[in-house]
Amino acid sequence: MVHKITKKIVGYKVLTDEKKEAAAGEEQQDSLESMHEKVERPEVLLGSTYKIKTPQSEHALYITINDMILNAGTEHEERRPYEVFINSKNMEHFQWVLALTRVISAVFRKGGDVCFLVEELKAVFDPKGGYFKKGGVFMPSLVAEIGHAIESHMKHIGMIETEQLSDHQKEFLAEKRKEFEAKHGTKNGSDSEFPEQAVLCPKCSTKAMVLMDGCMTCLNCGESKCG
């Protein structure tokens, strides 16, 4: 096809195969569905419910997170949280729980990287003091545990990568644990799966850090004061 040039040429560029592929990739990215405020809520959403039971209340909290399926049926299919609901028989915290769900849901619908919410919630401390969950995991507040539940959900749908110890690290920690228990004895009726002499690990918030070979080491995540 011939095109007649009727205006002065002010610039030009050669479209190579690489540039064609890059342009096609950009066009495909632009056409992908992403989360934003104007995405309409479908009739049915996929959801998961997480139970939180604290020693501070006889009633549990149930956190339900509903997800949108974006780019369904394609290689770019992904789940993104759309809304959150928190339900409990305990009405003591009703006002701030309701406000929290609305704010979190609004952030979810805004789109972008919403994983920052997890760290913000987990960093909230209760001035009255936190509590230990079964297994020795310390929760500085109820809000922090809600943050942990949201983090678990984001890991489940692939938004946050789960950090896992290598087989070598697991074997090393298992050996060190055997040495420690042989020297100091095992736990005595504690809810924690780790030795009762263990203290709180600053990295994973689990009461699993013990003194071994002159160095504080966490039997849960491998954190060591000696590097």
Concise overview:
With 227 residues, the chain is α+β, with helices and mostly antiparallel strands. It is 32% helix and 19% strand.
How do the strands line up in the largest sheet?
A: 1-2-3
* Helix residue percentage: 25-40%
- Series of secondary-structure elements, N-terminal to C-terminal: HEEEHHEEHHEEE
- Poorly predicted segments: none
Instruction: Outline the biggest β-sheet.
Output: 3 strands, antiparallel
Number of strands: 8
Structural class: alpha+beta
Mean pLDDT: 84
Can you describe what's shown?
- The chain is of the alpha+beta class.
- Helix content is 32%, strand content 19%.
- The protein has 5 helices and 8 strands.
- The protein has helices at residues 17-31, 94-110, 116-122, 142-156, 167-184; strands at residues 46-52, 61-70, 78-88, 131-132, 138-139, 199-200, 207-212, 215-218.
- A 3-stranded antiparallel beta sheet has the order 1-2-3. Strands 6-7-8 form a 3-stranded antiparallel beta sheet, with helices on one face. The chain has a two-stranded antiparallel sheet with strand order 4-5.
- Helix 3 runs antiparallel to helix 4 (142-156).
- The radius of gyration is 25 Å and the shape is flat.
- The N and C termini lie far apart (68 Å).
- The model has no long low-confidence stretch (mean pLDDT 84).
